[in-house]
From TrEMBL:
Superkingdom, taxonomy of origin: Bacteria
Region described as Disordered: spans on this chain: 1-37
Biased composition (Pro residues): 1-12
Occurrences of domain N-acetyltransferase (ranges): 34-197
Alphabetical list of InterPro entries matching this protein: Acyl_CoA_acyltransferase, GNAT_dom
Organism listed in the record: Sanguibacter keddieii (strain ATCC 51767 / DSM 10542 / NCFB 3025 / ST-74)
GO molecular function: acyltransferase activity, transferring groups other than amino-acyl groups
Lineage, opening ranks: Bacteria, Bacillati, Actinomycetota, Actinomycetes, Micrococcales
Segments of skewed composition (Low complexity): 13-26
Protein's name in the database: N-acetyltransferase domain-containing protein
Length: 285
């Protein structure tokens, strides 16, 4: 799924991000610039889904309310929200096992229409990352961002180029893998040409480069996460060219991390779909 960057209040906020998360949220997390609270009740999650997530993401990137509520109840998904005048106006949703050292994914980061701008997106992102890192000690905290060369900007869902700049300002680096979003169901379409970024890299998974700017990370936590994500979303691990390419990219001991300014060096997942081509017969996704 994806994320929205910060823009003036009249424009779509690029802070929307997508995916599903670990353990229970903290009782409360107050950070400079934003006041977060866990969203755990069905009523709070319905408000988040209806007023914040639904206007921010296209249908193929938005999980159902039922799935969101179930994931939070089971502890595989966690949601944090920001309230204004008693209403949930922004939220962040993460997914993962919650086991220290494993990977988590920022599934959604979004702000309700009419509330965007003024720095709330950046404050929300920083506070959510700090909260989840302190709570779960993940090896990697990841986010999905649309590749700006393959996804067009829209008034409803924001500008992928601005979104990537937003995440880069907050320290994101790109994993050199041909990434796509798994389909949200066994028969649902995948979202091609996404970038998988890191928002947090724990020292123990750094393979090359300085700890504050690694150039390669341990492939193990990433490989485990991607396998689990594909099976959990699509019901099985498909044997097709796109799945094989993605898993082959994390099949070695390490995976390169790339600065967002070097976007051309990152392989494009499902490039044929992003270009509007047809799937080769017998090898479809």
């Amino acid at each position: 799924m994806t994320t929205e960057p910060e823009q003036p209040p009249t424009a779509p906020d690029p802070t929307s991000a997508t995916t599903t998360g670990p353990g229970a949220a903290p009782e409360r997390a107050d950070r400079p610039g934003v006041d977060l609270e866990p969203l755990v009740t069905a009523a709070d999650l319905e408000e988040l889904h209806r007023d914040v997530l639904s206007p921010s993401f296209p249908p193929e990137e938005l999980e159902s309310l039922e799935s969101l509520v179930e994931g939070c109840a089971q502890g595989g998904t966690r949601a944090l929200g920001v309230r204004r005048d008693g209403r949930v106006v922004a939220g962040a949703v993460a997914a993962g096992s919650g086991t220290p050292g494993e990977a988590m994914l920022l599934v959604y980061l979004a702000i309700a229409p009419g509330q965007r701008g003024g720095g709330i997106g950046g404050a929300l992102l920083d506070a959510a990352v700090q909260t989840w890192v302190a709570e779960s000690s993940p090896g990697l905290l990841l986010a999905e961002v649309e590749h700006p060369a393959h996804h067009e900007a829209s008034e409803a869902h924001g500008d992928p180029a601005a979104r990537l700049r937003f995440y880069a300002r907050h320290g994101a680096r790109l994993l050199a893998v041909p990434y796509f979003q798994p389909g949200l169901g066994a028969t649902a379409a995948r979202v091609p040409a996404l970038l998988l970024t890191t928002l947090h890299v724990a020292p123990e998974v750094v393979v090359e480069g300085p700890l504050d700017a690694p150039t390669a990370v341990d492939a193990g936590p990433l490989r485990d996460f991607l396998t689990s994500y594909l099976v959990g979303s699509e019901g099985s691990l498909r044997d097709d060219a796109d799945t094989r390419a993605l898993l082959d990219a994390v099949g070695g001991p390490s995976v390169a991390l790339v600065d967002p300014s070097d976007l051309a060096s990152v392989p494009v997942g499902m490039a044929w779909a992003a270009a509007g081509a047809h799937v080769p017969e017998g090898d479809g996704a």
